[in-house]
Amino acid sequence: MEFLVEFDVKIPDGIPQSEVEAREKAEASAAAALEDGGHLVRLWEPPVAPGQTKAVGLYRADTEAQLDNLLQALPLFEWMQVTVTPLAGHPNDPLRRQTAGPGRGPVGRNHLPEPSLTMIYRLEATLGQALDLGTIGDRDRRIVPLTGGTFSGPQLNGKLLPGASADWQTLLVDGTALGDIRYTLQTDQGDLLYVKARSVRHGSAEVLARLGRGEHVDPSEYTFRTSTQIEAAAADLDWLNKGIFVSTAGRQAGSVIYETYLVG
After folding, report:
1. DSSP category for residue 114
2. How far apart are CA 54 and CA 116, in angstroms?
3. Residue ranges per domain, the chain?
4. pLDDT averages per 10-residue partition of the chain, 264 residues
5. What architecture (CATH level 2) is domain 117-263?
6. Cys staple from 111: which of 22, 107, 187, 260, with CB 3.0 to 4.6 Å?
7. Parallel, antiparallel, or unpaired: how do β-strands 80-87 and 53-60 relate?
8. Amino acid 48: pLDDT
9. What per-residue confidence (pLDDT) applies to 84?
10. What does the pLDDT read at residue 138?
11. Are 172 and 139 within 8 A, CB to CB?
């Protein structure tokens, strides 16, 4: 869902300037985190009278309750008057007409919703020594253990459990790596998450050779993506069992990073 959010900031009298500056700096960091999580889409500053501070933002969230929780976590929230307006698609929206495609006519009530991505967590996992099974047919196979790490997100935080986590990889002749990744996460509350992912990592021969030598390679130089499934027994995490997830990933020297998103 998309929301128009209007902020009217009024700083109480007597607040030290140092506190104001600290909160404004923290607010900028919080806005960047909301952007990374797919919640903050755009932010504008409308014309105001001298001494006034206002902003208008376009936000995305699964529900209005989720948006309220995100906004209440803002460092400046207690100094804000916030107005939230839920938005619905309009049949004459130019973007909706564009997505109808040539010859399909205007988009009506049967237009399918466009998918959105919501950040769930960022996992930074350490890697153990790979077990090389050798060549089977025209493919090499190896098992790469995930030996530890931590994950964090807007709602989930915790650690990766070693001994129950690994990537069963298939390497093609052109260097493409196909992953069958299975790992177990434990939240800070003690709940367990069973994660299964199918991944593909490909790029130019030169880039893949650098990755193979353990060099640092910027993730923008190659493609590393996964389709992901998450299972949880805890009642308050049942929404994970119903979700469709994708991840973007990056290989580091001795570690791997997965940023996992819920497809909305």
Report:
1. P
2. 27
3. 2-87, 117-263
4. 92 91 91 88 89 90 89 92 88 61 48 83 95 89 96 94 95 93 96 97 91 86 95 95 95 92 92
5. Beta Barrel (2.40)
6. 107
7. unpaired
8. 83
9. 93
10. 82
11. yes
How far is residue 264's CA from residue 247's CA, in Å, rounded to a whole number? 14
* Sheet containing strand 2-9, strands side by side: 40-44, 53-60, 2-9, 80-87
DSSP code per residue over 189-217: TS-EEEEEEEEEEE--HHHHHHHHTT---
Give the type of residue at 141: R
Determine the 3-state secondary structure of 81 from DSSP: strand
The CATH architecture assigned to 2-87 reads 2-Layer Sandwich (3.30)
Do the strands 53-60 and 223-232 form a parallel or antiparallel pair, or are they unpaired? unpaired
Buried-state track 213-226, b at ≥16 Cβ within 10 A, e below 16: eeeebebeebebeb
Count of Cβ atoms closer than 10 Å to residue 68 Cβ: 14
Return the pLDDT at 49: 84
**92 in Cβ contact with 77 (< 8 Å):** no
* 3 state SS of 225: strand
